[in-house]
Amino acid sequence: MKKHTKKTAPCTLSDVCSVLEVLAPPKLAQEWDNVGLLAGDPDSPIRRVLTCIDLTPAVVEEAVRDKTDLVLTYHPPIFRPISSLRSGGSGTDAIVFDCIRRGVAIYAVHTALDAADGGTNDVIASLCGIDSTEPLEYIDDPAVDQCKLVVFVPPAHLERVAEAVFSAGAGRIGDYSNCSYRVSGQGTFFGGDTTEPTIGERGRLERVDETRFETIVPAGALSGVIAAIVKAHPYEEPAFDVYPLKPPTLGGIGRIGRFPHQTNLSRLARKLKRATQAACVQIIGPPDRAIGRAVILVGAAGTIPFRVPLTPNDVIVTGEIRHHDALTIERFGCTAVALGHWASERPVLPSLAERLSAARPGLTVTISEADKDPFCRV
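User: That's the sequence. What structure does it adopt?
Assistant: Structure tokens below.
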């Protein structure tokens, strides 16, 4: 009997992008960043992926030699708009052109991976021995911009108003529509001489049964929903309230967490130097200073750690620190470890490769050997 085996559908670039958008959601990236698919045909088959921190000419040659279909780079080779793509130049535009010419797609993760669970900052936190962290700064979901609308309606007219509100775009939560909350109560009003109350009379305090009707409205649909209420509501002056809703947080940049056991600055620096194989590790503060909490931000920390109330018990763990920021750290009385920009980011690659391979078992994901720290030991 002939045995039939089910063929696995080839993995496309679009399939890989879908996985990467879960591992490092683009909406977590900083506003100035440029992450996601930078070059490539979404329908092209992908069999081999090469991961790196920097897309250099040496990495491109390695990718071509290994028949790589996609380079998954941490730093995006395109940051700003490019007016032309030409070969032979010294800029990253020439590298991008070379990849396109040789049929190699490019995907960048950068600050999206920094903010994501299990990303660059979480990996460094793990190397510090910290397993419980929270972001330094939370990021709100930019796709969620909603309001809660409350309107008070006589029971006999409730369904008419509700239908008008839903038709105008309110009441959607995920895949559910016509969502609302309703509770009965009593409203009061006193109509002046120029009013024409639908219920009761002017010049007299009226008490009427009403239903409090609540629903969710996208901010962009709010004006249309209010117009629908005014048209469908029986009252001359319908009463309604609008409450802006804070969007849910998605995660955030950086990490902050406590060491399970107190250590000191020198011991931590030596531990991270071994774990990251950094060419040169610099410290700020007395080597024997006891530390109990780490503020972690890979790459270039900038001034973001200064937004956290820092104490002498804190250590900033990052890649590089500017001279004047180092002086600020001293004034705060805390300490810091600078691993080198590249060295602070490189440790995430094995984890990223493993997670991508697990999500797409037929994919071969390797870590670039040509990807090197531009700074060397002397």
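Confidence is low (pLDDT under 50) at residues 1-7.
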